[in-house]
């Protein structure tokens, strides 16, 4: 599943090709994604120019407007990659679309943005400049923003009995800490994933926030990864997977103390941790 680093990598990858470009045509071949692509979208976006390519949580926000005028924002194209979605830029003459390539957006620089999603849990929505969308409301801060720090988590967690792992994966608390990253960051900060969020000290939260920022930045810098997408040609997990300390390593020796890594289930998701190092 594309996580925040993959989405940020995608944003950085497409931005230089589409910023300032005018949309000449949008072709929607399969509107049935997680939510239907709005029927008016092909008409709505035609002729509009990309003002900015942003990201909020795992949503890509392509702001579109008229290139002239005092108040140029017309609306925002919101793209989510779901479980298996990806975007790529095709330059020059486009190849005929394959089965899971659900829509294309063509630009006046002859570049095309093509969306592929075999499982169709992704989304492409429209938010006019005077509208808001429920999916973007109530999101917690971005993990790499300065507002997200140990004090913030400490205050937010008082009296909360939910486990710390579920707490940091809650999008209302902070966005973008996926399942793999949650296990890894709790290991790096020495926190038992089962511990109640409200019982964790300010110092431990500061250490957890450092770990989250460090791990996400590293993943973004390395081009973003999921275990599946970066499988090397030899079939072994890619470079980032080799650096995971606990995730997917049940029974292996903890890198710090050599105790066997444990696996448990929390909120229907797998958690990996070292019961000796994480208290
Ligand atoms: Zn250990």
Briefly say what this structure is.
The protein has 279 residues and is α+β, with helices and mostly antiparallel strands. The chain contains seven helices and ten strands. Mean pLDDT is 90; it is low at 224-242.
What descriptive keywords fit this protein?
279 residues; alpha+beta; four-stranded antiparallel sheet; 24% helix; elongated
Estimate percent helicity: 10-25%
Strand order of the largest sheet: 1-6-7-5
Mean pLDDT: 90
Distance, first to last CA: 29 Å
What would you call the shape? elongated
Low-confidence stretches: 224-242
Number of helices: 7
Description:
By secondary structure, the protein is an alpha+beta fold. 24% of the residues lie in helices and 23% in strands. The chain has 7 helices and 10 strands. Helix 5 crosses helix 6 (202-221). The model is unreliable at 224-242 (pLDDT under 50). Bound molecules: zinc ion. The site of zinc ion (ZN) has 7 residues, from loops.
